Amino acid sequence: MGTSLEPRESQVAEVIDRLEDEYPDSTISLVYSNRLELLIAVMLSAQCTDERVNSVTADLFEKYETAEEYANADQEELAADISSITYYNNKAKYIRSSTQTIIEAYDGTVPDTMTELTSLSGVGRKTANVVLQHGHDIVEGIVVDTHVQRLSQRLGLTQESAPKRIEQELMPIVPETHWQQLTHLFIDHGRATCTARNPDCKGCVLEDICPSSKLDSEVDLASGEPWEQ
Prior knowledge:
Blueprint: H1 8-22, H2 35-44, H3 50-63, H4 67-71, H5 75-81, H6 88-106, H7 114-117, H8 125-135, H9 146-154, H10 163-170, H11 179-192
């Protein structure tokens, strides 16, 4: 029977314990070697798989090494360099604009505050959180991507749909020491088991505490739609 634990803090604690056992090496999957590369990779990863991003950045990071090189790049050439990435034209514009700001306002260095990072073109709170956590070792929030959103809803941790509101609901119930790791655990579990369209509820280590389990529930709490029979 998929029944979430009460209060939500207990549900979170049990979820984290089980997922840490299931994914002991869970960490960021983007490949980068410095803060600028991290920023670019995370910007490219919006609505795109990390696997595809890593494939593209393997060549991109050899061609462009500095903020100046990105800022001065030809728009069409940069777009062509990332053309297998979703929304590559817009992302090329964001990269050129954000690196120009980094040069002009931050002496060519990727900034280390939420306010400064979110002032860059194409950088929202999710991207800024990733850069802060993995580029500057600053954890001041929870990264809410599609996996975190889906699992949080299915596990009964939130009924919100906007990432910012989900983050606001999660932060008080997730121990601050786990803010960063929760995202990686949810991403790994979302990829391996709790997929968007056809989750493997039978093989899920969280099934008995998941109120959205297909084995018991008629409705996917993430989409609000009935499970396909």
